[in-house]
Amino acid sequence: MADDPIHIAQREIIEAGGRTVQSFGLNRLFGQIYALLYMNPEPLSLDSISAQLGVSKASISIACRQLESWGALRRVWQKGDRRDYYVAENDFRAVINNGLISSLNKKLDSARVQLERSLELLERGRGRGDDERVLFLKQRLKEAEKFRSRINRLLNNPVVRRMF
To answer: What's the pTM value of the predicted model, to 2 decimals?
Structure first.
């Protein structure tokens, strides 16, 4: 079976999925799980996913819950079996709009809050003898906020959203 061209192709696709999501700063396992499920015509249990990827069931469970929260996976029921089964969402638009963009928006909001908090802390520290350093840090934080704001506007631009 290891020399079977279909098995080799599936392994390569799974690894490519892992590398792809990793290049975006996400956990490699997310891409591997998604690719495995996307390439399977039947739902797979956590046990099966774990065995096929050679990763602990606990890690698979955590990753599947995250992917499910992004809308990339759906949990399905199998008659007569109490285990959790998953299928990949094959509507990439839904995955991007409901999962990835939503997740990025939350991270961008969190970054905004942290930048605002840091600016407030710098304001409180003014006049303590290191004004040059404070001005430098404030300038950098303002640049970071400007960039964060641009990304946020781009992600939420109606024209861009319609593309997905």
So the answer is: 0.70
> Do 78 and 109 fall within a single domain?
no
Segments forming the whole domain that contains residue 150: 92-163
Give the start-end residues of each E strand in 25-95.
Answer: 44-45, 73-78, 81-88
51 vs 31: CA distance, rounded Å: 16
CA angle 6, 11, 13 (to 5 degrees): 95
Give counts: helices (H), strands (E), the chain.
Answer: 8, 3
Q: Which of 50, 68, 88 is the last residue of a domain?
A: 88
- Copy the structure tokens of residue 61: 């469970």
Q: What is the pLDDT of residues 17-72, one digit of tens each?
A: 999 989 888 899 999 999 999 999 999 999 999 999 999 999 999 999 999 988 89
* CB proximity list for 122: less than 8 A, separation 6 or greater: 134, 137, 138, 141
